[in-house]
Amino acid sequence: MGRWEPDARDRLVRAALDLFDEQGYENTAVAQIAERAGLTKSTYFRHFRDKREVLFSGQDELLELVTGGIAGASESAGALGAVEGALVAMAVTFTQDRWANGPRRLAVIAANDELRERDALKMAGFARTMKAGLLERGVPELDADVASELGVLALRRGYAQWLEAGGDFAEVARRALEEVRVAAAGLEGAE
Amino acid sequence: MGRWEPDARDRLVRAALDLFDEQGYENTAVAQIAERAGLTKSTYFRHFRDKREVLFSGQDELLELVTGGIAGASESAGALGAVEGALVAMAVTFTQDRWANGPRRLAVIAANDELRERDALKMAGFARTMKAGLLERGVPELDADVASELGVLALRRGYAQWLEAGGDFAEVARRALEEVRVAAAGLEGAE
DNA sequence: TCAAGTGATGGGACTTGGTCTCATCAACCG
DNA sequence: CGGTTGATGAGACCAAGTCCCATCACTTGA
């Protein structure tokens, strides 16, 4: 059994989420996750590079969408327009069924420092990728920095809103970005 | 020897930075850091909660300055004005002698994923603390989110500029924040 | 002056994350 | 039917991190 059963990766993800949810991240050993999935520790580490990553798989795919979304934005679009292109491009992976476990996943991450750390790194990765794409388009360095940070903020806010209320992710993210843009434009200086 | 020699913590920090610099973070064991500092692994973990943290000590102190700086900003100051208060308040710890190893530290962090991960968490911590302080002042949630993210961006940019060019940190950070503010205000929408 | 107390350290056992290597077994292919 | 491929199992191994207890330097109070 186990051997050659399909979807080893998915089984590991589900087992991990269940166990983290039931008994907490720290009280769960990798060997235990593997066992529940009908696999072994060796196999776990063949699929995920460490204990945290099981909750963050699919990131690479998203980064490619970000890069493509920014590069594919219309010539005339400004920095934020290109960032919007990135958010909209990400929408193809944000489908209801694939993210049914989104809220549980968020709760588990929020409850643990190690996981929040990994989450912060992932977010920084989005920002870095957006910034690189913007620089590629000729956006000045400062503008690229600001636009990518605001883009990640919009992504975070949009994701949370989408998990809560559902709907079309592209639309939700677009609104979140516009919201953030208006707020940023309205901030006054210090003097 | 070693026992009761003063400054155990500082010795550990210096030993760690030296070793990470010489042979890389991954190739350095905690026991080795402790040994170079004339201490043992046990003592190391009494001073730092894990291997990464030795490069990030002093964070709590900075968070307190952030909180104080925001709370202490003048009544009439807006969100960004309060954030500026936080950056200026942090300047007391950014003195040339205490940060002589800043560039080496940055290089070591940039060279390693685990350390960049911790760095991302620390930055997220600054943002969270700033946001909390702004909410405390009655700033709307969205504005607090945007202002704190821009504040952290200004902190990062200002810190890098200060390490490179020196000068008064408060002044450098203030300029960085204003720069970021102007760039954010100038970003156009997507339509 | 000395005995008790305090606080930082040493030391070592132990668990677990993570790496590495080799054996095994199912499926595929000629 | 025999060889190849690719995912898995098994187990040794190292380092991170936890825990507990002994030890020693220094302080305090009688």
From TrEMBL, chains A, B:
Residue ranges of every copy of the HTH tetR-type domain listed in the record: 6-66
Q: Give UniProt keywords alphabetically.
A: DNA-binding, Transcription, Transcription regulation
The organism sits in which domain of life?
Bacteria
Short name of one Pfam family for this protein?
TetR_N
Has UniProt tagged this entry with the keyword Magnesium? no
Instruction: Give TM regions.
Output: none
Q: Which GO terms describe its molecular function?
A: DNA-binding transcription factor activity; transcription cis-regulatory region binding
Where DNA binds (residue ranges)? 29-48
The protein's matches in PANTHER family, at most eight in alphabetical order, are given as:
HTH-TYPE TRANSCRIPTIONAL REGULATOR RUTR (PTHR30055), MYCOFACTOCIN BIOSYNTHESIS TRANSCRIPTIONAL REGULATOR MFTR-RELATED (PTHR30055:SF238)
The name of this protein is DNA-binding transcriptional regulator, AcrR family
Please give the organism: Lentzea waywayandensis
